C-alpha cells in the first residue's frame, strides 16, 4: 500500500490507523484526488500498451476483422476499463492544471464544469460506440 | 515612543506590492528536469485534446464500413501519419514521465545521480518506443 501510494502523509496516517484498527479518519479531498490520479495512471500503462498492440496487430485489417476483434465481450470489457480509467485520469489531471492557472473563483468553477462536461461527453460517446460494436 | 509611532505610521508603506519577491522564473537556468516537468504537463494536455481523435476513430468503426475506410484513409495520409506519430510519442513521453513520478512517489530516485538518470530515461525511452511502434506498423503493409 505505502509503495503504491507514496509518502503522502494522509495516506500513511490512514494506513497506520487501519493497521491499529483505530476508527479511520475520513480521508481528505486532496489525498483522494492524489490517489486516484496515481491508480488510474498506473492502470493506464498496461491498458495503453494493450490498445496500441491491438491496433498494431490489426494494421490494415478490414472492417469485419476489426468489428470481430473489438466486439468480442472480453476485449470490449478491457476497452471499457481503458476508457473509464483514461478519462477519469484526464479529468483529475486537468483539475490540477485549472487549480494552478485559474484563481478567479467563478472562472475556476466554470472551468471545472467545462472539464466535467467534456469528460462526460467523451465517455458517453465512447460507451455508445462500444455498445454498438458489441451488438453488431 | 515617538519612534514607535513613526513605525506604526510607515508600516502600511511596506504593503504587498513592495515586499521582496522570490527570484522569478526568468532568473533560473533551464534544467532538463524543468523542461521535462513542463513537457509532462504539455503532453497530458495534448492527450486530453487527443481523446477526440480516439473518439472519432471509435465512432467511425462503430458506424460501419464506409466510415471506417474513410478513417483509415485519413490515418494513412501524410498528415495523418504525422499526427499519429506525435500522438504516440506524446503518449509514451507522458507514460515514462508518469513512471518517473511513481518511482519518486515510492520514495526512490531522489539522489542527484538517479534524478539525472531518470531524466535521460524519460527523454530517450519515448523515442525508442515510438520507433518500435513505427517499425511494427511498417512491417508488412499498412
Ligand atoms: C499511459 C499511462 C499514463 C501514466 C503512467 C500517467 C501518469 C500520470 C501522473 C503520475 C500524473 C500526475 C503528475 C503530477 O502529479 O505532477 C499525470 C498527470 C496527467 N495526466 Fe497522465 N498518465 C498516463 C496517461 C494519460 C492519458 C491517456 C491522459 C489523457 C487522456 C493523461 C492526462 C493527464 C493530464 C491532463 C495530467 C495533468 C498534468 C499536470 O498536472 O501537469 N494521462 N499522469
In short:
The complex is a heterodimer of chains A (136) and B (142). By secondary structure, chain A is an all-alpha fold. By secondary structure, chain B is an all-alpha fold.
Which structural class do you get from the secondary structure elements of chain B? Answer: mainly alpha
> What percent of residues of chain A adopt helix (DSSP H or I)?
over 70%
Strand percentage of chain B, roughly?
Answer: under 5%
Q: Which CATH class of chain A is shown?
A: Mainly Alpha
How would you describe the oligomerization state of the chains in this entry? Answer: heterodimer
Largest interface: A-B, 34 and 34 residues
Describe this protein's structure.
The complex is a heterodimer of chains A (136) and B (142). Chain A has 136 residues and is an all-alpha fold. Chain A has helices at residues 2-5, 9-19, 29-57, 63-71, 73-101, 105-135. Chain A has one domain (27-135): 3 helical TM bundles of succinate and fumarate reductases, CATH 1.20.1300.10. The longest helix of chain A is centred in the C-terminal third of the chain and has 31 residues, at 105-135. The N and C termini of chain A lie far apart (42 Å). In chain B, 77% of the residues lie in helices and 0% in strands. Chain B has helices at 2-11, 32-63, 65-76, 78-105, 112-138. Chain B has five helices and no strands. In chain B, 18% of the residues are buried. Chains A and B meet through helix 3, helix 4, helix 5 and helix 6 of A and helix 2, helix 3, helix 4 and helix 5 of B. Protoporphyrin IX containing FE sits between chains A (37-38, 41, 44-45, 48, 86, 89-90, 93-94, 96-97) and B (40-41, 44-45, 47-48, 51, 94-95, 98, 101).
Amino acid at each position: 500500500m505505502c509503495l503504491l501510494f507514496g509518502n503522502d502523509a494522509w495516506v500513511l496516517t490512514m494506513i497506520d490507523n487501519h493497521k491499529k484498527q483505530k476508527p479511520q479518519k475520513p480521508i481528505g479531498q486532496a489525498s483522494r484526488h492524489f490517489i486516484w490520479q496515481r491508480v488510474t495512471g498506473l492502470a493506464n500503462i498496461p491498458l495503453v500498451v494493450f490498445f496500441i498492440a491491438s491496433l498494431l496487430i490489426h494494421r490494415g485489417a478490414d472492417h469485419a476483422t476489426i468489428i470481430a476483434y473489438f466486439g468480442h465481450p472480453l476485449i470490449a470489457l478491457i476497452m471499457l476499463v481503458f476508457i473509464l480509467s483514461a478519462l477519469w485520469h484526464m479529468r483529475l489531471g486537468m483539475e490540477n492544471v485549472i487549480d494552478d492557472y485559474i484563481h478567479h473563483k467563478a472562472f475556476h468553477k466554470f472551468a471545472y464544469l467545462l472539464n466535467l462536461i467534456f469528460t462526460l461527453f467523451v465517455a458517453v460517446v465512447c460507451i455508445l460506440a462500444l455498445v454498438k460494436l458489441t451488438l453488431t | 515612543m515617538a519612534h514607535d509611532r513613526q513605525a506604526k505610521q510607515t508600516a502600511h508603506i511596506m504593503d504587498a506590492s513592495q515586499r521582496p519577491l522570490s527570484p522569478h522564473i526568468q532568473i533560473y537556468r533551464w534544467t532538463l528536469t524543468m523542461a521535462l516537468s513542463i513537457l509532462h504537463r504539455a503532453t497530458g494536455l495534448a492527450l486530453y485534446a487527443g481523446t477526440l481523435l480516439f473518439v472519432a476513430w471509435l465512432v467511425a468503426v462503430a458506424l460501419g464500413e464506409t466510415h471506417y475506410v474513410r478513417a483509415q484513409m485519413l490515418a494513412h495520409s501524410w498528415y495523418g501519419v504525422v499526427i499519429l506519430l506525435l500522438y504516440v510519442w506524446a503518449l509514451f513521453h507522458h507514460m515514462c514521465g508518469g513512471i518517473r513520478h511513481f518511482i519518486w512517489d515510492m520514495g526512490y530516485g531522489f539522489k542527484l545521480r538517479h534524478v539525472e538518470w531518470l531524466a535521460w530515461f524519460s527523454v530517450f525511452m519515448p523515442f525508442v518506443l515510438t520507433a518500435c511502434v513505427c517499425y511494427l506498423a511498417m512491417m508488412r503493409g499498412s
